[in-house]
Amino acid sequence: MYLCNMNHREKNKVRVASFDDTYAIGINSGLTDYKLAWHIGRKLSIDFSRQDDIFAEGATYSFYYYTAGENCLVYNLVSVKCQDKTLLSFSPRLDYLLVIRNCIVPQRIEAIAKSICEIEGVGHAFQLDVNRGQSVKQALEIIELQEIEILENIRIRNSLEFIRLQAMQQRMAYSPTMVTSK
Predict the structure, then answer these.
(1) Ranges of each domain in the chain
(2) What pLDDT was estimated at residue 19?
(3) pTM of this prediction?
(4) Of 63, 64, 94, 105, which sees the most CB atoms within 10 A?
(5) What is the CATH topology of the domain spanning 22-149?
(6) Which residues of the chain have pLDDT under 50?
(7) DSSP letters spanning the chain
């Protein structure tokens, strides 16, 4: 017999994981997304890849992704405005969010924000408190969902590639060998 001691009020609660290992830098810049991604990539010695955009309420928001591998730092650069629409409203006004996840010291985040401020065309860049403010939490959830979709697509692509390679190897193993006569 299975007994469940569950309070009816807590039954429908959604528990969101904390963003303890996540940092966000808000960026105000007139640069296009690909130029900003390139400049930040040069500053941080990383190579962003453009991924599928985030679609929300009839607008598209660019999404860039970089990871150094499993259990390493993950960087996401996301535009939060598209023409006259915004993904989420921030105060002060932001154009981009740089989200960094997995074991990084806060001093490094401050240094990254300062180096982004040095990029010509960047008005300001500053660390956001990910534990305060509903807009920041919503943005992090949207970014995390987008990243999960990207990783799932990569997994599918890799598994299809693996299947294709196996099929080719089997074809080569069963193909008749050519016998040449003199």
Answers:
(1) 22-149
(2) 62
(3) 0.71
(4) 94
(5) Double Stranded RNA Binding Domain (3.30.160)
(6) 1-10, 13-16
(7) -------TTTTTPPPPPP-TTEEEEEEEE-S-HHHHHHHHHHHHT---EEEEEEEETTEEEEEEEEE-STTS-EEEEEE-EETTEESS--SS--SEEEEEESS--HHHHHHHHHHHHTSTTEEEEEEE-TTS-HHHHHHHHHHHHHHHHHHHHHHHHHHHHHHHHHHHHHHHHHSPPP----
